Amino acid sequence: MYRKMLTIRIFEETVFDVYRKGLMPGLAHLSDGQEATPVGVCATLHPDDTITSTHRGHGHIIAKGGRVEPMMAEVMGRVTGYCRGKGGEMHIADVSLGILGANGIVGGGIGIAAGSAFTAKREGKGRVSVAFFGDGAINQGIWYETANIAVLWKLPLIYVCENNQYTEFTHFKKLTAGEGLGARARAMGMKSLEVDGNDVLAVYQAAHELVGAARKGKGPATLICNTFRYGGHHVGEPGTGYRSKEEIAEWKAKDPLPRFENILLEHKVISPADIEAMHDEVLTRVQASVTTAQQAPFPDVKEAGEHVFA
Amino acid sequence: MASEVVMPRMGLTMEEGTLVSWRKAEGQKVTAGEPLFEIETDKSTVEIEADKTGVLGKILVQVGTTVPVGTVIGILVKEGETLPAGETPGGMQKDARPDASLAGITPAVKNSPSALPGRVKASPAARTLAKKLGVDLSQAAATGPGGRVVAWNVNTPSSAAIAKATPLAVRAAADLGVDLAAVRGSGPGGRITRQDVDQALRKPAAIPEPHAMAQPSGTIRPFTRIEQVMAERMVKSFTSAPHFYLHVTIDARSLVALRAQLKPKLEARSSVHLTYTDLLVYFCARALSQHPEVMSQWTPQGMHMMKDVHVGVAVDTQRGLLVPVIRNADRLGLTEISRVLADLTGRARAGTLLPAEQEEGVFTISNLGAFGIDAFDAVLNPPQAAILAVGRIKEQALVDVGKIVPAAMLTLSLSVDHRVLDGARGARFLGELAELLETPTLSME
Amino acid sequence: MSSRELTFAQAIREALDEELARDERIFVLGEDVGVWGGVFRCTEGLFQKYGPERIIDTPLSEEGYVGLAVGAAMTGMHPVAELMFGDFITLVMDQIVNQAAKMRYMTGGQVEVPITIRATMGGGRSSGGQHSQSWHAWMAHVPGLKVVVPSTPYDAKGLLKTALREPNPVVFFEDKVMYAKVKGPVPEEEYTIPFGKADIKRQGTDVSLIAISRMIHPALAAAEKLATEGISAEVVDPRTLTPLDEETLIQSVVKTGGAVIIDEGYNHFGTTAELAATIAYGAFDYLDAPIERLGAMDVPIPFSPPLEFATIPNEEAILAAVHRVLDGRRR
């Protein structure tokens, strides 16, 4: 789990670097600071469980097993990317790993996740479907429509809300009426848990409970993980125009990586040298993925007309 | 106050009902709640009660009629009241269809602007066709809306429409950017040739001043249908098919003798009056079946090969020139040909020839010998590729084995479409025909 | 080959029945499709035959259940989502346009999205502006969707069966008036009709009438009427908008020189515009008159019958358009 979190952190930092050096087209939406949530949740999932992700999806994808090489290539628009350069950093998918895509529409993955849960229920093999979304999506209609259906039809669907406090540039409390997502989920007839999203073990424990219940056919549930993104909404936007220095510092003090490091060290699961070695290894790997991607070709223009239809 | 009795809607899907019976007669008293009439819907037969008390003033729809729901079928009046005069009040017309449907485009620009100077309004189809046929669009009639030249105008152009230009000249003009309208034609009939186009390039075309036309005396009368068609066809023929002419003067003594011999026989046996034209038809038909390429017709898509020997004969009538067709002349005996031609000619003159009897000819014979004409060149009868012009049989001096003798001679002129036949092929046919006529042998039928 | 007559709705129902039996990945979902049998009777008896797992009554949540259908399609099922009124496509636009239509492309070919969305179309029932619209042009404008507009029971059954075997998103439009009112021969034997193949419903030489869905019927009626005037009209039914059988449309107008396009969708920027452009380009040299576009009038569809009928193309409008096309031209 730690390795995964580390990978996410380093990946996001590297993408930022890639962006600043002008090596990638478009924008990137980075999730450094939020690593614990996806890693904690995905640790409870099997390879055939599915997840859908958001526009800020690198963390979810790496947590579910996505490899950095085709991810970086996709970010940089190369044909060797996961989606052959057709999706881009906001739409990466690896269907073989159960990653049904990051989605550019807020809440766009929720309908798809519901469908995957429907199929899982039909298959009857105890598979679950996880929909990752942010505090913005809790006010999107699709959440309520699918939640209603999921509860009625007892679908094995876990709604995981990564609440990083800000819906783009506005604090979520200013945009959300009533008592928030937890209360709404319960009103729909769903169980809802709320945890410190930067505590990977807490996330893991809560997810384990809800996913386990879903596997047994108990129906959908909601998990709210409170976390924080260090970067802005997208690269190039510093994230300081609407958030105070104090707030940022406060959350950095709760950084999920050192917190987990400490627990591991305390329980002597790994040593400082291991950590350092792991850090170097991941860094090398991620940086190598940039070089590899740089050397890879862009998709041929002919491909523009391909993959529209099966 | 009069009130309407309507065909009621008895169900959401009911659209119409049939009147099965009236329970009251006109003039009879009606009490509210009493059965007034009976209707049949697609589901069942239902009795309908009167909703008012009064008198059944008028029955508008008879028993057995099917009407849409809402139709007024009768008028109820108060006792002592008279019927309202005039039309019955309208009920709710379910399928009221207004006169004009608004569906569809009403573009701001109804028609493209009228022709700008130097530009011709013509449909794409007209332009394509004009290019193919070498027609000058600016001269074509324009019967399409807004003064648009349409395909038909190009296909059957009026006499003014065709730029009198050879296809070569048309192409040259297009290539060299010469305006055909400004070129003087030096070819036959004022036709513009390739040379004329080249000339025009060298010196600026001096368009002759149109001299002031004196007011023409005499009256102008509209064309008859035959004149119109003849004019159209002749212009089209003369300017699209490159004509060339072959002449042969034959020794007609054997032909004359043959006719003299056969005429009384055929008259006695079959009551037919044998003419030289009959003989010409007979021999032409045989020659054509030996030279079927003479029957071919040029089309833009390719050479149209014809195989049925339908021979047309030009007939002068009061209303003008008609060309009835003797079908499958190669399979007819001389007697039959004579009979058929006599019948066709008679009806042509009487004006009772059917259009079908003038169609599908592959070859035409025009005989002006009766008018004392020695020889002439005929215009091809489109879409045919050959036409035989026959003059009179005239006693002339003939050199026969070194000696000059008087002999009956006949001049034949064959006009040929050079797109279909070259000189040699035309000559072979005419040569064969000449031989047949000089040494006629009949297969008696 | 035996043939009996089915209504449009019966033909749809039969296609669903046969495909449900053939492929267990197929399931139907929508409002009142199950127990009630569908408001237009298209799923009558199917719930009783296939059960609640395969014929599913959904809550009134178009975006929710169509979104769910997209996800199910991406994970191996073939859902048939019904939109009771095609007007409600506005509620599911994100799921159809941004999700279903794009998933295969944006994942570089990693998924297939075999979803069939059945939506109704057409006015003429005094249902008002929000229940009478025909949105096939909107859907055809989206890359990644296939759009089907059948006009007869025979075509409907054959095309729906093809849709249910198609591994891509299909939006299948069914005209409401035709459900009960149009009857036609449907063979009992198994058959399908491929997408992208137009059908010449009546051969002719003087003008091409190209009509979509229900409009085929006034077009055929107009052709009959024109025949008595000595005018030979060809009636062409595209049957699918994407993929479009451009060649048949173009060849028809090359032959006749003039075209009238009839559609119940709004005229402005609609199906008539696209087909007219296709014909203008492909048959350019053979056009002898401007192409006539008869779409619905560009106003919200009115309620009152005389108004409503005035805004929808009908036989008279077609006849008037044909006369404009033939004005000044001889055949």
Give an overview in words.
The complex is a heterotrimer of chains A (310), B (445) and C (331). Chain A starts with a helix and ends in a 15-residue tail after the last helix. Chain A has helices at residues 2-20, 36-42, 58-63, 68-75, 108-123, 141-153, 181-187, 200-215, 245-252, 256-266, 272-295, and strands spanning 50-53, 99-102, 129-134, 157-163, 166-167, 170-171, 191-196, 221-226. Chain A is globular. The model of chain A has no long low-confidence stretch (mean pLDDT 93). Chain A has a single domain, classed as 3-Layer(aba) Sandwich (Rossmann fold). In chain A, the strands form two sheets. Chain A has a six-stranded parallel sheet with strand order 2-1-3-4-8-7, with helices on both faces. Chain A has a two-stranded antiparallel ribbon with strand order 5-6. In chain A, helix 8 (200-215) links the parallel strand 7 (191-196) and strand 8. With 310 residues, chain A is α/β, with parallel strands linked by helices. Chain B has nine helices and 19 strands. In chain B, the strands form five sheets. In chain B, strands 9, 12, 15, 16, 17, 18 and 19 form a seven-stranded mixed sheet that branches. Residues 87-100 and 205-213 of chain B have low confidence and may be disordered. By secondary structure, chain B is an alpha+beta fold. Chain B has helices at residues 124-133, 151-155, 167-176, 194-202, 225-240, 253-270, 276-290, 334-350, 423-438, and strands spanning 3-6, 16-22, 29-30, 35-40, 45-49, 54-59, 66-68, 72-77, 243-251, 297-299, 302-304, 311-313, 315-317, 320-322, 325-326, 363-367, 386-390, 394-400, 403-417. Chain C is of the alpha/beta class. Chain C has two domains: 3-187, 3-Layer(aba) Sandwich (Rossmann fold), CATH 3.40.50; 199-330, Rossmann fold (3-Layer(aba) Sandwich). Helices cover 37% and strands 21% of the residues of chain C. Chain C is built from 13 helices and 14 strands. Chain C has helices at 8-22, 46-50, 62-74, 93-100, 103-106, 136-140, 153-163, 176-181, 216-228, 246-256, 271-282, 305-311, 315-326, and strands at residues 3-7, 26-30, 55-57, 78-83, 116-121, 146-148, 170-175, 183-187, 199-202, 207-211, 233-237, 240-242, 259-266, 292-296. Chain C has a seven-stranded mixed sheet, with helices on both faces. A five-stranded mixed sheet of chain C has the order 9-11-10-13-14, sandwiched between helices. In chain C, strands 1-8 form a two-stranded antiparallel sheet. In chain C, helix 11 (271-282) links the parallel strand 13 (259-266) and strand 14. In chain C, helix 10 (246-256) packs across helix 11. The longest helix of chain C is centred in the N-terminal third of the chain and has 15 residues, at 8-22. Chain A binds chain C through residues 50, 52, 81-87, 91, 93-96, 100-101, 103-105, 108, 110-120, 122, 129, 141-142, 144-146, 148-149, 152, 306-310, and chain C through 53, 58-59, 61, 63-77, 79, 94-95, 98-99, 103-112, 114, 143-144, 146, 167-168.
